Amino acid sequence: MITRNLRTYFKFLSKNKLYSFVSIFGFSISLMFVILLSLYARQEMSVDNFHEKKDRIYLMTHEYTASFGNPVAQFVKDKCPEVEAYVRILSRSVAVGKKGSDKFRSTALFADSTFFNIFSFRLIEGNSSQVLASQQSIVVTPSFAKKVFGSDNPIGKTTTIDEHDYTVTGIMEEIPQNSQIPQCDFILPYSNIIYYWGGSWILDSSDNFGFTMYFLEKEGTKLSDKIPMLLGLFKENFWYYKNGFTDKLEFIPLEDVYFTLKGSWSLDIKTNSKNLIKIYIGIAVLILIIATLNYINMTVAQSGFRGKEAAIKKLLGSSKKSIVLQLLGESLFMTLITFGIGLILAFLSEPFFNNVLTTKLELAQQFTLPIISLFFLLILLITFIAGLIPALVISGFSPLEVVKGTFSKKVKTTYSKSLIIFQYIVAIALLICSFFIWQQSNFLVNHEMGYNQDRILIINNVLDTTQTIGFKNKLLSIAGIEKVSYACGTPIDGGNNMSFEKDGQQYSFQELIVDSDFFSIFGVTIEETGIPATDKTFWINRNAFNSPLTNKNDMTIDLGHNNIVSIAGILNDMHFRSLYQNVEYYRIRKLTNNIFPWHIVIKIEDNSDMFAIANRIQEEYSKYNGGEITDASFVNNTIQKWYEREQKLSLILTAFTLLTIIICIMGVFAMSMYMIKQKEKEIGIRKVNGATEMEILLMLNRSSMVRVLIAFVIANPIAYYAISKWLQDFSYRIDINWWTFALAGIIIALLTLISVSYMTWKAATANPITILKNE
Prior knowledge:
Number of strands: 22
Structural class: alpha+beta
Distance between the termini: 37 Å
Number of helices: 26
Oligomer: single chain
Radius of gyration: 34 Å
Helix content: 40-55%
Strand content: 15-25%
């Protein structure tokens, strides 16, 4: 019986190639998206859930970032008995290989010896308490061990990293993708960062705020209760708090860190947006719904053909139940085929997907028994939903209607029309949102920031203060370098923040400390006031100058706490950091010899090879520091990275929108075939009574346009609400314009007309005698 039914179904599919192609293609592509997006969302939502002590691990942050000076970790542990242990981490690229031999780049993670006791990353070999105890120890991953030592056991063997020898004391599993801790090839003891910061001073300096630290809370205690006490001590001991740059402190639970933007300012923590993951989950659900509805529509559209078969089976003694089960079996068979094809397509498109979302999905490892069981249940659910309605419709035909040739008139089409309208609503709403997200992404990337962005390299400075002048002169001697500046803060990082209250109003200033070359490098214009620039005077932006804080008569500004200073100049307004944040006021003062500059800012001449010059800079830097540059980036690249999330969302949403439109149009095409089949007799009668081909064409297309119009009216407020909510995350954003809504509606209407025109024209030009011959 099953074999005969399958043979009949294959015969039906082979005779109806268009139906077969549209059904299989639409469902397979949809399931590919569902598989990729659902597994990606699962991976992201499960970040760091595998740590045994996850409920007691906290990341320490302040107002903006998760960066502190190295001694702060031990300071907190000494002052808080609630702290069981802490671990600092730092990720960077290093060179592996002996001097004079072939070297290759690898990613190192520097961590305290408590790393494996706090986190649950599995050691394949080695003692978790001892593997990082010695400064010369190294814990390697299997892939690194194989690359360096071949098939030999690496334990006890030595490898050279940036001219320093390390002995392998442990082998660890690769850090999984679903962890905020960055992937690495090996872990080195944290104290080895001295080789990259020019000496041991970096371990003792609380002034250099650039290091990430996690704390393990003792069981039965509450570390967050100590925040008020710690804030008081920080204001006494650490300049960042002492000088009012921030007055915030927070311990963020490990499970919340990945979705906290504060972590994104640390180079050593991976982050993501929970709202973005929810959007991806929503997209996967919508794709599944639309694909299922489209399959239902396509199957019902073929009911005229399948109804004859079902009615004849009834004449031969088959029950309605057996026919329903047969059609559900066909639905299961179709779902299995499309799921299999979708799975193959998912594996084939995995590299592209990983590249778009900057992730590493590793599909093969994702298919655990629980996931396989979940997908199996999903297949059964799709089978039941997608197969039941067509099965009930087709099995309901009467044998008598087949004999009379009137069975096709009995099929109810209300639900099919509703499904088509629903697909239109989704397609129009998505198209509107895609347009606005694309507009906002372009706005962010191309928005005028108020300063030069091109060919400017920013390097984190770890040189000794006695080396800065000599290094600057050396850089200026390199052909292709136009200017060099030292600064504490840039428009990219925003420098320091100073906040205060005056007359019941809260004020917040970003502060940079720069030398004289800074302004020409970034193209900042200054309106001089006649007051000399010193370390006691400030340049302020136009907004600050026009604020109630400024006394324009004597050119002074109140910076809070009775600190009234002279204004050396008025600057054009710049956008500090990304356009997510609104920086209304900023101030800049002169860099003096007693202040350590955080950044080296280099302007590279036009028409010169930026990357060749960057290599020359590295060579000179190594001569001064004995190591590699710890962190460097071009300004325009950094700005591009700020908005990668929006660009990824735009790309994913565009792909999904196109898929939705394709599926929707396929469904409309199939439905138009069915509707025209239902109206064949009516068309014939109208033509006999004198109706023209154009009148028939308008009659047939009118219903499609009415459905588009209904969907357009419903989709507009939905899209407006969604995009308004999304744009609220941006301090600077585009206006919501009416023409984008209209454009989306026009596009869907035109695509609908094009898709159904062939069938409607064919029906309008058909010979009425042929149509009416069965009457």
